[in-house]
Amino acid sequence: MSLSRYPSHPPSDLSTGPLVAPVRRSMLSAPAAGGPFRGGALTRRLRPRSSLASPPASSGGEPEKERLLLVERYRDGVTKRYMSDGNSKLQIRSEKHESPVNAVEDENADSLIPQVIRDFVLPAGFPGSVTVDYLEYMLLQFPTNVTGWICNVLVTSSLLKAVGVGSFTGTSAAASAAAIRWVSKDGIGAFGRLLIGGRFGTLFDDDPKKWRMYADFIGSAGSIFELMTPLYPGYFLPLASLGNLAKAVARGFKDPSFRVIQNHFAQSGNLGEVAAKEEVWEVGAQLLGLSIGVLIMDTAGVKSSYLTLTSTWLIIRLLHLWLRYQSLSVLKFRTINLKRGRILVRSHVAQHTVPGYVVCNEEENILTWERFLHPQIFFGVPMERMLGGKGSSDKVNRLLKLYKNEKYVLFVEQFGSREPTFLVAFKEAANSMSVLRSLWQAHWLQKNWKNQDEIFSWLEDSILALEHGFTDFLEQMERAGWDQNQIILKVPKEPVLVLQHLDQEV
Question: Which residues does UniProt assign to the signal peptide (predicted)?
């Protein structure tokens, strides 16, 4: 990208905050022709960059016509139009449509199934993201599971009668009532699994280690509710239901996460065998754990003291959580999620090297949430937030021209002397590689951050660095053993920048 397209003295109204340091003029050196990017100081050549300057005022007295700058689309059918009124003032007009205007979703939409239900019960990208037999199988699997649970309710009543809660010849109503209460407890728990699967189904492919660990934390909370039932026997049903709900939510996180882990193990496509052998390990551990648990329960101290029982449970549960963390820490994924992507780009920006997947997984923190990582990057940000609510049409024009060759728009949100926060909006054609490129640019900006009064000059340097350095980054990724087909950085579904008509008059 040539530097000659950008103005050396942008209008004063484009400043984004009370930034007081002088304008930075060098950050990166351009690499030798054909050579890899190695960083250094980029010598800025002072050239006129008139294409990003404010549009000149009309020489005649006739005002300019309104122009459409871009359109931002949301999944609920809301569309925002960013307009220039011809006097460098920005106008934002919101429109509400009867249905979302995403053309890709419209092509796949079934008029008989509302979009909100499709998103809840079907995988993202259906039907293109699954095989052709998926829906037919699930439609038959649903009544199969219904009949199975009906049988389970009937068997539960029989089991309770067998242990003395009513009988077939006597007070059978007591057994039926107890069975209903017991099944209600299970039903409340199952509702938690329903919500997790429908609402959070897209989380597990990105970070199965984190969600598998959090599943154990949630399950531990459920056990605490169940341990409280002897203290408050009159509240058995609500306490047991809360415990079962928490355990069901934990299972909702655990099962999908572990399936991703199993798929990671099946390097030669032997997923069925890996799952079967895992069952052998699981059942063996279950039998041994049950045996040890019975022996502990048979000791005099545990049988006679509730405090001893809870203390023993707490010690063993803490040991369980520690062992779970250790087991997840040894996993070495080759896929690139946000955490591992940050580690890779940070290493390349700072040291011009890319670590292999073993080192990267060892550095990855399982429990850390994305919002607590630095630099702070927010994806799927509306353009209105980037503009700070009082941007000009010139500012929008400059952003669109600056990112003309990218599938995203990145801007900086600064507050005084604090580290900057990076805001990223994605265009309609954005993909995982677009997210990775925005990560690289944000880390470069954070490394070369200076509190200055010319944000666009800083962004311009980062785009130059991205153009020169990202190719070398991909080459080093390949040499380090990373597969570019395993990048699972998901683009937010909304908002989407769907139109850029910089010269269209409305």
Answer: none
